[in-house]
Write a structure and sequence with these properties.
The complex is a heterodimer of chains A (757) and B (245).
Chain A (H helix, E strand, L loop, with lengths): L8 H16 L1 H4 L3 H10 L6 H13 L9 E2 L8 E2 L8 H95 L3 H8 L7 H21 L7 H32 L9 H10 L3 H28 L17 H26 L18 H17 L2 H19 L2 H22 L4 H29 L14 H20 L6 H33 L5 H16 L6 H29 L3 H9 L14 H15 L16 H27 L8 H6 L7 H8 L2 H14 L2 H13 L1 H13 L1
Antiparallel strand pairs in A: 1-2
Helix pairs in contact in A: 6-7, 6-8, 7-8, 8-9, 8-10, 10-11, 10-12, 11-12, 11-13, 11-14, 13-15, 14-15, 14-16, 15-17, 16-17, 16-18, 17-18, 17-19, 18-19, 19-22, 22-24, 22-26, 24-25, 26-27
Chain B lengths: L1 H14 L3 E8 L6 H10 L12 E10 L2 E10 L6 H4 L8 E7 L3 H5 L1 H11 L5 E7 L11 H10 L3 E4 L10 H16 L11 E3 L1 H9 L34
Classes of the chains: A mainly alpha (757), B alpha/beta (245).
The structure holds guanosine-5'-triphosphate (GTP) and magnesium ion (MG).
InterPro entries (chain B): P-loop_NTPase (IPR027417), Rab_GTPases_membrane_traffic (IPR050209), Small_GTP-bd (IPR005225), Small_GTPase (IPR001806)
Family (chain B): Belongs to the small GTPase superfamily. Rab family.
Protein name (chain B): Ras-domain-containing protein
Chain lengths: 757, 245
């Protein structure tokens, strides 16, 4: 308002119009202070908003009526616009210019008065307000105090509530832990019941409870092994679970024992999974397992024994199959049936025990618990139980054997039957040993019985052989074939060998096979050989014309032929062959002497061999030319006879080959003797006048090779002759001849060998 | 634990049975008895089979319809020299598998003797199944199927041809015998409760029997025998060559 400087509109207009003029003369008048002052005044700008506002207010104040403009007089009361009526143009403006100040002051005063009045009212109102505010402040302070108090007290509460909440959480945690702990370390009522009550059968529920108890103890042990050491709770848990566990084991034991007593009475057994599991569990309590198995074993022993007795005496349902005893008169069948029954029982029993212990027969464990499944231990159990179970059968078995079999065999005195039985027993002995072990009672009993059976057999063949040795030959029986006693004896031997052959399993080696029969051969063959030789020698003394040599060879060859069907007699045959060879050598010497005699050359040859060198042969009695001539004549005649190809004596030999061989050997000797004679005769020292003529007068005309031809032996012998001639002196030749005469085959072989070496 | 449980289950499957039956396998040496059995128990051909010495034991559990049957099998030696031993094993057998070799006529012509032995020595209810083995050697056949079939009919025995080499019909004779035996039990001619019958109840059957009537066959027939009427066995026909265990 201070800047409001009222100016007349004309001056304003002038000022406005002069502005442009001033601008034009600006430069010329600028240095003049007056002009400067003037220009300053003139330069005052009224074109500002404030100025315009002020002017507008003014013009409103002095507004003309025609223009509806009223100037309100600053009077109190209702404002009366100054209605000024311009009667003369410009009059109003002049007046306005004159009264402006006053008008203004009036107006201002009026305004101030109104202000005062309004402010007075405000002041009164403010006073009242202040009173209210003061009152409010008091209340607020009061409220604040109250609030502070309340805050104070609720903080405690909150704190307590928080604490309580924390406590509750803790308690809850504890509760969870305790529940978990209890769940983990104690048995539920149901579980306890399962373990201890007789009303809960052994089954999954029971096993689970057992498992849990075991686990609790295990966990507890682990906990107590920690830093804190054993706690009271831990000890308590261990103590109570220990009791429960033992209760459980006791329950298992009761179950097993009962079950075993019950099912053990069946002839065929099956193992339920529950039973199998109980056995597996009991393995942790060996003493209880032993007790349970003892119960089983007892029942099984009794059961098997009564089944066996039933099979022996009663047979199957309504008597079929027939009782075994029904065939007691047939000891083979009786023994066989008994042992087959036992064998089958063993197989079934073994299957039962294998499944009880959870082993498969091929050694595969089925559904077994990992930890304590050492198969060896189970095998040991099985072995022992088997031994016990079938051990009881030994009594009736042994009784049956000694009462029935031994008696039958003795009464029948049949060596074959007793041998068959012994072999059958031996067969089962092997079978049982494989199944239940060598030391099992059944095995040892069977061994005993088998030994007895063999003894019975050996006794019987011994007795048989003894009867042989008591036999004396009929002196007047001219026959040269083996006597009936030998034939009968051989028949028995043959059957015995047959039995032995068929008892072989095909798994034995040669030594075993031979060893198994040598005793029989010694007992049966040796006495027969001795009997033949001894008896023959006696008979030969009494009956010199009876040809004991041929007889012995016939007997020996017969025995040999009996043995030769079986390979396991090789050793005995070799022994006999030795005797035969000796006998052949003997007979060959005898025979060739005879042949030499029959051929008429015996004496000539003897003289040739034994004469003194200084005495010519032609001077000696039997070799004088005339005698020699006669002898050669006789030889020639003999050569044309049948005896050359065939010896009546040897034709009694049952073995044709032997006949041929011996006779040939004799002919060879004969040829050699003839050759020797020829050589002697040709020797000048022996003083034969016409040696060649003498020898050439009769067949074979002094030609040895011709003789070989006649004997059908030429080629080989001639070759040998020539080689002999080249090497040997007279004396050697004599020895050679004798040797060859004795046993042609042998000496030939030995010569061949020595030549080679 | 889980593995153990599983194993226990497997064991149970393997071990429990409703019936136990004793069989003998007989016939001339070399007809393939041991091979037949080996194929039956091991599901493979037995190479280099040697003559059986005496008798040999094996066992296997088979399924026939709902029934599990454990077979105790006695393989006998065919060689004459073992006859006195093997004859003792006939007693108390419920079934006999009589084997001949289709390429060996003698093994067929001797059957009469084998059957007579079996009938006199075993229980009178003995079920006999005749098996013409080596059916794979068709070219060397010496015994016609028809002829053997006639013989079987005349002698009242079951018959089929098999090959232990290829495995054809190897299980069938054993199942055939088992079925016939079950029928005999059902009809009352055979009593598994009696010793020496060659058959006995297994635990599985016993449990079932105990839980109902002693006379009932449980699920075997679905109805108690004493309630009368002809009871038919519900034995499903088997598939030859199908395997159990
Ligand atoms: N091709 C053929 N050969 C077979 C068959 N079965 C067995 N064989 C052969 O026949 C022979 C005798 O078989 P085994 O099973 O030992 O005869 P086995 O009847 O038991 O004889 P023993 O034990 O002496 O009574 C063996 O060489 C087998 O390989 C078959 O089905 N086909
Ligand atoms: Mg065999």
């Amino acid at each position: 308002m201070a800047s409001l400087s009222p100016r007349t509109p004309s001056s304003i207009a002038r000022t406005n119009s002069s502005q442009s003029e001033r601008k034009a003369s600006w430069t010329a008048q600028s240095r003049n202070p007056v002009s400067q002052r003037l220009s300053k005044v003139l330069g005052t700008n009224f074109d500002s908003e404030d100025t315009r506002q002020a002017l507008r207010t003014l013009s409103e104040l002095y507004a003309t009526t025609s223009k509806g403009k009223e100037v309100q007089a600053p009077t109190s009361g209702p404002t009366q616009p100054m209605v000024l009526t311009e009667t003369v143009p410009g009059e109003l403006a002049a007046r306005a210019r004159k009264n402006l100040r006053r008008d203004m002051e009036l107006q201002l005063a009026e305004g101030s008065r109104k202000f005062l009045q309004a402010l007075g009212e405000v002041d009164t109102k403010l006073g009242a307000l202040q009173t209210h505010v003061a009152a409010m402040r008091t209340s607020c302070d009061e409220a604040e105090t109250q609030l502070a108090l309340t805050n104070e007290s609720s903080k405690l509460l909150l704190e307590r509530a928080g604490n309580l909440r924390d406590e509750r959480q803790e308690v809850e945690d504890k509760k969870t832990i305790i529940t978990l702990f209890l769940a983990r370390f104690t048995l539920t009522e149901l579980e306890l019941q399962a373990l201890t009550s007789r009303d809960v059968p052994i089954g999954q529920r029971f096993f689970d409870a057992m498992d849990k108890t075991e686990r609790i103890r295990e966990d507890c042990r682990v906990l107590m092994a920690g830093e804190d050491g054993s706690t009271k709770a831990g000890l308590e848990i261990m103590a109570s679970t220990s009791t429960h566990l033992e209760d459980g084991y006791e329950k298992i034991l009761r179950y097993c024992s009962n079950e075993f007593r019950k099912v053990g009475r069946d002839s065929q057994l099956e193992v339920s999974p529950v039973m199998k599991q109980t056995i597996q569990r009991l393995r942790k309590r060996p003493e209880l397992l032993t007790e349970a198995l003892s119960a089983l074993s007892e029942t099984r022993q009794a059961t098997l024994l009564s089944s066996f007795i039933a099979a022996l005496t009663r047979g199957g349902p309504s008597g079929y199959p027939r009782p075994i005893e029904l065939h007691a008169h047939d000891p083979m069948r009786y023994v066989g049936d008994m042992l087959a029954w036992v064998h089958q029982t063993i197989a079934a029993e073994r299957e039962f025990l294998e499944s009880l212990f959870g082993i498969k027969s091929d050694g595969r464990m089925v559904g077994s618990v990992r930890n304590f499944s050492s198969k060896a231990e189970e095998e040991e159990w099985i072995r022992e139980l088997m031994d016990l179970a079938v051990g009881k059968l030994c009594v009736p078995l042994k009784a049956g054997f000694s009462v029935r079999v031994q008696q039958t065999v003795r009464s029948q005195e049949s060596n074959i039957v007793s041998y068959k039985i012994a072999n059958l027993l031996q067969f089962y002995l092997m079978t049982m040993r494989r199944t239940i072990g060598e030391d099992a009672l059944l095995s040892t009993t069977l061994k005993e019985i088998t030994d007895v059976a063999y003894k019975v057999f050996y006794d019987s063949i011994e007795a048989q052989s003894q009867t042989l040795s008591r036999i004396r030959f009929d002196l007047d029986d001219p026959s040269l074939t083996p006597p009936n006693a030998i034939l009968d004896h051989s028949q028995i031997l043959r059957e015995v060998m047959q039995v032995y052959q068929s008892s072989l399993l095909g798994t034995e080696d040669e030594d075993e096979i031979n060893a198994g029969f040598n005793q029989v051969l010694d007992i049966m063959v040796d006495p027969a050989v001795q009997m033949c030789i001894a008896n023959s020698e006696e008979k030969m003394k009494a009956r010199p014309r009876w040809d004991g040599q041929v007889f012995i060879l016939n007997c020996l060859c017969y025995l040999q032929s009996v043995l030769s069907t079986f390979e396991f007699t090789t050793q005995k045959r070799a022994e006999i062959q030795k005797t035969i060879d000796q006998r052949i050598a003997l007979l060959t010497t005898e025979h060739s002497d005879n042949v030499l005699r029959d051929a008429g050359l015996w004496e000539v040859a003897e003289t040739c061999k034994h004469h003194e060198t200084d005495e010519p042969l032609s001077r000696l009695p039997s070799t004088q030319p005339a005698d020699l001539q006669r002898a050669l004549q006789r030889f020639s005649m003999w050569l044309s006879g049948l005896d050359v190809v065939h010896s009546p004596r040897l034709s009694h030999l049952t073995v044709q080959k032997m006949h041929t061989q011996i006779h040939q050997d004799a002919l060879v000797r004969l040829a050699k003797e003839y050759k020797m004679i020829c050589e002697e005769v040709k020797k000048p020292a022996n003083r034969y006048e016409a040696a060649a003529t003498l020898l050439g007068s009769e067949r074979p005309f002094g030609q040895v090779h011709l003789l070989w031809q006649i004997f059908g032996l030429e080629d080989k012998e001639e070759e040998e002759e020539s080689s002999d001639e080249g090497e040997d002196e007279d004396e050697d030749e004599e020895e050679d001849t004798e040797e060859e005469g004795e046993g042609e085959g042998d000496s030939e072989e030995s010569e061949g060998e020595s030549e080679e070496s | 634990m889980a593995i153990n449980d599983y194993e226990a289950d497997a064991t149970e499957l393997l071990e429990t049975y409703d019936f136990l039956m004793k069989y003998i396998v007989i016939g001339e040496a070399g007809t393939g008895k041991s091979c037949l059995l080996h194929h039956f128990t091991h599901n493979s051909f037995k190479d280099h089979s040697q003559h059986t010495i005496g008798v040999e034991f094996s066992s296997r559990t088979v399924k026939l319809g709902e029934k599990r049957i454990k077979l105790q099998l006695w393989d006998t030696a065919g060689q004459e020299r073992f006859r006195s031993v093997t004859r003792s094993y006939y007693r108390g057998a419920a079934g006999a598998i009589l084997v001949y070799d289709i390429t060996n006529r003698d093994s067929f012509t001797n059957l009469g003797r084998w059957l007579a032995d079996a009938r006199t020595l075993a229980s009178p209810n003995l079920v006999v199944v005749l098996v013409g083995n080596k059916s794979d050697r068709e070219d060397d056949r010496e015994v016609e199927w028809a002829e053997a079939s006639r013989w079987a009919a005349e002698n009242d025995v079951h018959f089929l041809e098999a090959s232990s080499l290829t495995g054809e019909n190897v299980e069938a004779p054993f199942l055939m015998a088992a079925r016939a035996i079950l029928l005999a039990i059902e009809s009352g001619t055979l009593d598994p409760e009696k010793a020496g019958s060659g058959v006995s109840y297994g635990d599985r059957a016993l449990r079932r029997v105990n839980s109902s009537s002693r006379l009932s066959f449980g699920s075997l027939s679905g109805s108690a025998r004493r309630r009368g009427g002809a009871v038919k066995l519900k034995v499903k026909s088997w598939i030859p060559g199908s395997k159990c265990c």
